[in-house]
Amino acid sequence: MNLICPLCNGLKEKKVKCKNCSDYMKDYGPIVNFYDDYSPYLSNDITQLVDGVSHDCCLHLFNCDNCNYDEKVKINRVRK
């Protein structure tokens, strides 16, 4: 069973409000992309092992442009 992240694949958008200022936050993609220079180019089979969430979730980094607050949000993967 192949699972994919609906945000990474452009199937859905997620609106997250900032807990500090209530402005909408921007999705900067999977948190694993920020681990090092090569992590965005690694296979999902590898990166799914290091983000700290279960295999059926993708951990995204959301940031508020207004107050610079960061939040990690679990996104449920869907069947391909």
Would you kindly provide a written description of the structure presented here, covering whatever features stand out?
The protein is mainly beta and 80 residues long. It has one domain. The chain contains one helix and five strands. A three-stranded antiparallel beta sheet has the order 2-3-4, with no helix packed on it. Strand 3 and strand 4 form a beta hairpin. The radius of gyration is 13 Å and the shape is globular. The mean pLDDT is 87.
Question: Could you name the key traits of this structure?
Answer:
80 residues, mainly beta, three-stranded antiparallel beta sheet, two-stranded antiparallel sheet, 5% helix, globular
SSE topology sketch:
Blueprint: E1 3-4, E2 26-30, H1 44-47, E3 57-63, E4 70-76, E5 78-79
Antiparallel strand pairs: 1-5, 2-3, 3-4
